[in-house]
Amino acid sequence: MNWRRKWINPVLDKEFVLRMRTPRAAYSVLIYVLVMGLLGMGIIYVMTASGMGSRGRLDPTTSRLMFYALSLAQLVLIAFMTPALTAGVISGEREKQTLNMLLTTQQSSATIILSKLAASLSFMTLVILATLPVYSIVFLYGGVSPKQLIFVFLFYLFIMLLLGALGVFFSTIFKKTMVSVIMTYGVGLVIFLATGIAYIFAMGIVQTQMYSSGGPSSYSSYSWIGYILGLNPAGALISILEPSFSDSVFQVNGGNADAPIELWQQFLIVYSVVIVIALWLAIRYIRPVRRNRVKSSPIMDPIE
Amino acid sequence: MIEIRNLTKSYGSFEALKSVNLSIAKGTVFGFVGPNGAGKSTTMSILATLVLPTSGSASVGGFEVTEQPHEVRKRIGYMPDFFGVYDQFKTTEYLHFYGASYGIPRHEREKLIPQLLELVNLNDKKDAYVDSLSRGMKQRLCLARCLVHDPDVLILDEPASGLDPRARIEMREILKELKLMGKTIIISSHILPELAEMVDEIGVIEHGVMVAQGKVADIQDSLRVKRVLHIRVLERSEELAEQLRDEAYVSQVMSDSYGIHAHFSGGDAEQSGLLGRIMESGYQVVSFNEAQTNLEDVFLEITKGGTSGDELA
Lengths: 304, 313
Hints:
Chain A: This is ABC transporter permease. Chain A: One of its GO terms (molecular function) is ABC-type transporter activity. Chain A: It comes from Paenibacillus anaericanus. Chain A: It holds the Pfam family ABC2_membrane_2. The structure holds 2 protein chains of 2 kinds. By secondary structure, chain A is mainly α. Chain A has helices at residues 2-7, 10-20, 23-49, 60-86, 91-95, 99-103, 109-130, 132-141, 146-173, 177-212, 226-229, 233-241, 245-250, 263-285; strands at 289-290, 299-300. Chain A has a two-stranded antiparallel ribbon. In chain A, strand 1 (289-290) and strand 2 (299-300) form a beta hairpin. Chain A starts with a helix and ends with a strand. Chain B folds into 2 domains: 2-221, Rossmann fold (3-Layer(aba) Sandwich), CATH 3.40.50.300; 226-292, 2-Layer Sandwich (Alpha-Beta Plaits), CATH 3.30.70.100. Chain B has helices at 40-47, 69-75, 91-101, 106-119, 135-147, 165-180, 193-196, 216-222, 237-245, 268-280, 295-302, 309-312; strands spanning 2-11, 14-24, 29-33, 55-60, 63-64, 76-79, 153-157, 184-189, 201-206, 209-215, 227-233, 250-256, 259-264, 285-291. A 6-stranded mixed β-sheet of chain B has the order 6-7-8-3-9-10. The radius of gyration of chain B is 24 Å and the shape is elongated. The two termini of chain B are 31 Å apart. The relative contact order of chain B is 0.13. The model of chain B is unreliable at 305-313 (pLDDT under 50). The interface between A and B is medium-sized, with 28 and 33 residues.
């Protein structure tokens, strides 16, 4: 029981119990695994029907492609599910009128915020782990190392942490869960889509400039636009699956230099800062905060 | 135990509290009265460390709410006017959660929770889901939650609102028991009669201003709240009513089939003199009573003209 007392604080304990006591938890896992399973089956069907692999059967090369496809599909599902789970953790308590009583207990702001995030992410981790049997189809045909699978799953954890931290932050500063959910999805959309589109536009501009100035340059250099794709989760995930991907992203202007940084490394560094800032702000603003110590200072209240 | 000095709270241009001063001694039951939006809940939220004042200070047990909120939280049990519960919890689990949140070890909670459930008459509901409890039971459970860490001060914002008469009486009995336990209780209510018999002091707040504070009797005296005399005579009731209208200290004389009601602003000696004159005039007096002035009268007297009747309901 000692480890329990040490790691499971009352807020975390409450979140675990309340989340798992509703049938919704079981339905969520079921639907998620069902969707992943159908996607897996669909991918196998497409690959075998289109004549990929050896005579309509899966081989290690096609099973590797299937792994990539599944991993990207899972990334999209996580992007949809994490905000739904986390963007209401504080505002939901506020709407249910339980937050004030929680805030008058001895639990620190950090404990409340981090426990609620940890509980939501634990559930997401359970959902992701529940999809492992779908991945076992891939292992049946080979082509993917367990190490790659572990890296991909660790990357998922990071994505969940990022979206979860943003969800908890918006949930703290906005009074209404609906507003918080919309904001989290909005920022998620920027991270997932806007960065990818920005990269494509930037690549177009750089290549047009390159051809108008007389073709690829002969000297070794890398283009700055690779950094844009380093902000995109799909770009970072592909760079984990295919290590050469980072080099090719940075070489659009014809240079042949190595990438200055792996896309996933840049992704981790940049978004770690975002996670820390989001959580710090959430911890700071869950309880009323005096902006400065002047007598008539305004107070930070949740935004309507 | 509770000290509030020049407390002000503004929301934009709206001033919810205007330089409120309040002092409540240990063991006092303090009734906080005022119409909706007068600033009762804001004051209580500030004491509960949930809202920061714009200026001024508030302390509980010598600890400033803005400087040492952690210490203040240890010493207060706060019951908001509107609150929710975690429906998926059972009653005992609900109290275990809050007990643990106050750092009470499990073995202590195991002993404490049955006692608390006993105090609020929920012993037979210990395994019931919170969701299945009636509103009155939830109010009592919330009160038990306030007591889980044995705080010195209870801040109860409208603890009887929305309760039926029986539940209200049960709540009042529990509060009396808490008073006997020596808790300092600050309790707000718009329903004034329910406070009357249990509070030691009242504070009347209106439009963010504390208009009166002190013992109910002292406030009545200081405001010279008129006594209402109820006089019944065997016959010639109308004639007596006419005669009373000419008496000094008497105003608003009303006469109906139940007798005569007259507002009287004199003291005991003048009242005795009035009875003597009525007797001398040959009226056969059946009864000559002083109607009890309650908190509601005091409140209406203090906030005269500034409060509409429906706000008091």
